[in-house]
């Protein structure tokens, strides 16, 4: 049975994150220390240095040969269930939307595994919680963020090529067809899309971080290598700032918004339902399918209910697709996540 001491450990792990968030908020909103250009510079520091090195640190210390493959399978099943449902809705429903399918996928599957997940699950379930949430982070960084980039690039390429075709221009990497939507239609070829997406991935250090960390983990555990002290120290000196600077940067972003709920009440509720109910619900389906039980089952569901991934908002802003919805999900979702996650923690103690 969960006790007040357990709840306190969770609160004690989360409150420092909110302190960093409020310091970032106050430095812009109340004290005027940073201007918008300086805030963007802080965000770039987080995106290109502290968070990637933070990811390298955690992924390089996992043992790929001891990964919980039932947990990995449950995580994969949960996301595939959501992908199938959204694809069916987008293609078969009169109200289906490709753009909203992408946004819904982000809202229901991509969570803040490292910044919030690591300290939270460590307080709840110790090292087991940390190990599993890092495994989830590796999958998210290597597979699902790549998938998100692909569909975003597909959408943008399709729109830009269609515009060029309408202006009388024809790309050499375009496959032409005629509709019944007798008008020449075009879509980018598969290899053209792969080239564009590959270039984007090469510019994303967070993808590199997961791949490098996972590669080192395989090599180190296969041949029993230890990371040289000088290398580990070089990573740690920046990665230790990962959690704090990420939350601080989120606070500066929050302070620059006219209002926290930027997309309106109805879309905010929609986003919160996807994040805190649909995502964990899909994970419960995957967990049951893979036969998870006890703490592993609880960790699987709780990590699926973590607040929204910051990276998903960055992508939404870059590709011009519902950025206000994702920003609200990141900011408002992080604020309300503490009571929601404590509630999940308490309720799941009754699940065996």
From TrEMBL:
Subcellular location: Endomembrane system; Membrane
GO biological process: auxin polar transport; auxin-activated signaling pathway
GO molecular function, one term: auxin efflux transmembrane transporter activity
Bilayer topology term: Multi-pass membrane protein
Signal peptide (UniProt feature, chain positions): none
Matching Pfam families: Mem_trans (PF03547)
Transmembrane segments: 7-28, 71-91, 98-120, 132-152, 205-223, 235-255, 267-290, 328-347
Keyword Transmembrane recorded: yes
Keywords: Auxin signaling pathway, Membrane, Transmembrane, Transmembrane helix, Transport
InterPro entries assigned to the protein according to its UniProt record, in alphabetical order: Auxin_eff_plant, Auxin_Efflux_Carrier, Mem_transp_PIN-like
Principal location: membrane
Keyword field contains RNA-binding: no
GO cellular component: endoplasmic reticulum; plasma membrane
Function: May act as a component of the auxin efflux carrier.
Family: Belongs to the auxin efflux carrier (TC 2.A.69.1) family.
NCBIfam families: 2a69
Protein name: Auxin efflux carrier component
Organism: Durio zibethinus
